[in-house]
């Protein structure tokens, strides 16, 4: 018997499990890339009824990989089964945006899905469950799920800007002509929308400030920032479909880094704001995060923001307040 089989499995629910991101994600969780090479996983695969046939195919393929870490695969369209006793709920499933749409255009379409999922997580998941929302608009959908799950602490809800952080690091690395691993301390602040702010002023290339390596301020402000903000659209334009493999990769990065003490670099995660750095309390906004030795995440303190950065972040957070007003109005939720 392998020694790793002595660990209790981590139970992970994935919604939209037969969708494009789900297909790119599940095999990476099952192979140990999310929780480590000695950590068994139980996979609760959730789909809407029309997706169940495709989900059977995905589960067959997972079986056919004979992953030694997979303890169980559950296939269901019933949220009370899907979220039962889960440690992590990865809310991936939602209607993706098409060409010509902004992520916020999906509010009316996707918002109510997250009410039902939040309620089911509240009622059936472990009280220690952690929830990562990927379906767009992910910050506001996360807030909707959080409000619908009053028994689960707000600190256990996250939305994803790691994809934007990864995109930003690569853009800077390409410009500077260095390997992407040289870029660190790059936080994306605010909303996962074109208004997000990838903070190049505090980021580093090697040991130097980015602004000491890339001297072209105009490029940083007028090309880099919008390129990162519009990268999702650029992928849709090029592929005819929204990002899937890179989104799944960012889910793996986010969950792995929230599950382990941070060594070195900080990371961008959308979390509940308690007013840090002037962000309005009560929204889910992207902030720089580190996980301490006890496994608790904390917002990194002492980041020095320029007036330019503060203005960008405030504008993105203002957009989140507006999204909340629209969504909560539509769904009859109170702030
Ligand atoms: C992305 O950033 O690629 C995703 O959020 C999909 C989208 O609609 O942009």
TrEMBL record:
Belongs to the LDH/MDH superfamily. MDH type 2 family. Catalyzes the reversible oxidation of malate to oxaloacetate. NAD(+) binds at residues 16-22, 110, 117, 134-136. The active site is at residue 192. Its EC number is 1.1.1.37. The keyword NAD applies. Substrate binds at residues 97, 103, 136, 167. This is Malate dehydrogenase. One of its GO terms (biological process) is tricarboxylic acid cycle. It comes from Pelagicoccus albus. The gene is mdh. It catalyses: (S)-malate + NAD(+) = oxaloacetate + NADH + H(+).
